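Progress report, Aim 2. The chain analyzed during this reporting quarter is listed below.
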Amino acid sequence: MRSFFDPSRTGRSAAFQRAASVLRTGFALAMSLGAACQQRTARKPPAAAAPAADAWPALDEQLLTAAAQTAQFRLGRPQPLAVAPDGSVLFRRTPPRARRADLFTLDPQTGQARELLNVDALLQAGDEKLSAAERARRERSRTQTSGVVDIGLSSSGERVLVPLGERLFVLERRSGRVHELGVGPGFPFDPQLSPDGQHVAFVRDGDLWVCAADGGGEPRRLTQHEPHTEYGSAEFVAQEELDRKSGYVWSPDSRKLAFQRTDASAVDTLYVSDPRHPEREPTPFKYPRAGRPNARVDLGVVAINDKSQPRFIRWDLERLPYLAHLSWPENAPLTVLALSRDQTTSVLFAIDADSGALRELLRERDDSWLNLKSGSPTWLSDGSGFLWLHEEEAGYALQLRAADGALTRTLASPDQGVREIYAAFPDAVIVAASQDPREQHVYRIPLAGGPAERLTEAGGVHAALAEHGVVVINSEPREGGFRSEAVALPSAGDAQNARRWQLPSLAEKPAVTPTTQLESVRVDGRDLYTSVTRPRSFQPGQRYPVLLRVYGGPRAHNVLDTKNGYLLDQIYADAGFIVLRAEGRGTPDRGRAFERAILKDLITLPLADQADALRALCDRHPELDRTRVGVFGWSFGGYLSTMAVLLRPDVFHAAVAGAPVTDWALYDTAYTERYMRTPAENPSGYAHTSALTHAAGLSRPLLLIHGLTDDNVHFAHALALIEALYAASKAVEVVALASTHMVVDPRQALAREKLQVEFFRKHLGRSPEGLGQERDGQ
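Predicted structure tokens for the chain:
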């Protein structure tokens, strides 16, 4: 087994490097002496050195460095956080090459932005201190910046809660005054401002606490958790896999809190340590692996102004153990969506917080699995009903349902491509939708029924935050770039006359626009979406080595109609490759059958579709050299890359796998069992989809990159594969990073990309310029 940690090396052992260096030096010296002798005897001028036949184009290190330092040119973009009732937009923004965000506001009358809170001035340039739980929460939400991350806004819009690490600040918008809350010793986790702006709740040491938002008095503990339980914190699978980040909510009248009670005593405790700092204790995480016990979660309600004990509410926890959604909207009941462990059954409950009585509103079932859609349910502001996304064969129907759950009307049919509900205004619903999976648009759909009205330009990917009649749209247009604008909507059908204001961006613009072209290929009656990125110096008639950049897993797109996402593809292409992407079965927004085809087997069809799309593109474009194909990806893409060289070495000739799952029995319950069921139910599926099963067949170069402190795909995945390969006398190159699942450090991000380029150059043969000569090993 070969391993290395120095990005300047190309995978050979240190002893080999030293020996090779000596040989190269000796050979160069001998050639120099020979040339000198020839000059003395022949007296002829030396001939000009010819360029090396296998010289690769220069890597654009300046652009690559800029991309790493700007987080792919996303730093400096405004990120909307809330809209106040007066139409003001509150947003956070970093400098273009720094990761600490400050708080700003956009005035709805003038369209001018101004700073509300400067973090450096407030903290006097100090750093925020984060608890292990807060670091994990930011990892779950993929938050890569510091400073202002989340805020709380009172219902009047006058008071703003700004958490900065372990410190809590309250901003009075009218006066601009900022004061810090004294919360006592310990870390205030997941702080939330009450709707009336009078109190701040937070979790500490497994209990709920509350303090006055004006800074008066001492914090009060509201609960006293039992042994082996904690209150108010969302468990790992809720945060990572069910898109529920918080474990409690305020009541609309600010008098009560509804919170989850979590008994994780049966859940395995995994310890994540940082070998670079052996003096630090390992961090324990409750992490339920596939087939192992989950946390037991139910719901409690506690009043904040009396000393009564919490009232606990239970449904059938054996049949519906997952708490997938928790909300308490104004004029609507406390609402819970509970989900079966195999995620084939969901029940939406309305709960009477005073009596604890449950009322079933809606029950759904899918024999494969149910997808949880953001914004479903969303209650109307008057509580007369709620919006729901119901999946059918072709997609999701946007339904308006009465307060008792009965269907009132269908507002959008499945073929309209609705994917997410952003908000319900008095006369309309704001949604994300597109009939083309490669795009996403923002629409307004009348609640009374009628045609949808698109608020975004053609092409591109657009997302929104919508409140109080204002829609804040972040747009990544088809040709690249970024725009953030606040749209104050007039009457329905008149979006062209809407008032629009730009949220100013500080983000740098890349000097290069990717050459990427979107295509589709037809394989066995299925259209597979692909992208092709060629070098800017592309020469017709030459054949280029191919890199397939993959994700390929559920719930995520890898081929999108905005060139922003292809900058790294272009950097790789300019370094001497043609870079491809493809989306196959299992990816979303292509209809139920297309997505559910991967049930109980996460590799066979996704890998087959990648290989088939690659073959079809090679047939179409003769410049693609199918004899030199590399594959690379991260997370599920790392898994797919690993399996590509293990199962299809006839197609894929080298792979880089970043943070790959190598054995699904080691991954978490909620994600894995949704698609694979449990190991006991599907033993052959787990065996077939495990890289460990196929390790002995490795015949192609493989580079593993994995963070030692990854608490999502644990480093145990990499170690398990390394051990299996070692037992089979197979060599693998390994880079272990002092990082989590995200690679945030710009230096590590830069080194990773350079290393991957060099790995593929080494293992895929000569550059395009050398194609006229015979390649070694071909």
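The chain has 13 helices and 44 strands. The domain at 61-68+510-767 is CATH 3.40.50.1820 (Rossmann fold). These observations will guide the mutagenesis work planned for the next reporting period.
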